[in-house]
Design a protein that fits this description.
About 85% of the residues lie in helices and about 0% in strands. The chain is mostly helical.
Amino acid sequence: WLAAALTEFATLWLLGGWVARRTIGGGVLLGGVRGVAAENPGLWRFMWAANADVTFGELSARVAPLIVGWVLGPTATGLFAIAQRASVVIAQPGQILGQAAYAEFSRLIAAGQRGVRLRQALLRSVAYAFLAAAPVLIVVALLGDRLAIWLGGPAFVAAGSLMFWLALARALLLMAPPTGAALTALGHPGLSLRANRIAGLGSLVVLPLLLQGFGLMGGGVQALLQAVAAGALLSGFFWRQSREAVGLKAQTS
């Protein structure tokens, strides 16, 4: 895992440098960074908000197993971890498309296409993410018990039923990375952070009650609540910002 993470880190920098040399030339890459913040007002706030958004987006998945162990014990934590591990695969299409779509969103915004064109581009990105994840969701729905045994052994077969609900929640959350990228391209990464913070922390607060009421399946209910809340908040923020942009453009013209 560590070797893969370091390889990914190095590869991103190498590819980024290669693309930058092709597009903006090599001399710019060797310059200093003094004055960058002054030339780009709000840069530090933008960077902190964008990075905090990623952190809060992953927070719930990291903290949920701890709460499961606190309420239901280590055995339930093992079952939850196995189910969660299988559902993580579904999140990859959304993350990849969110990163790739950011450049397209920025290009549209720079060209003044902040209304219908931007919304259409976001809808296409989300649709592609759903289509990419659909086969995995179908496999989990049909073969959840076998996947649980394959990942953890016969003792973890009970994780199969929970696996589907976590996978479904992950599928619903596929719209979060592209929508967050669109908000970031619009200059409002803080809105994506706010949505993830409200949905993630809010669902974690009620997780102990759900676990006491529904047992281990309460973890699936919490994941679904978080996905629905995050999707609703992100969609509302994006729609408002894109609508405001359209209105501003109309007034200006």
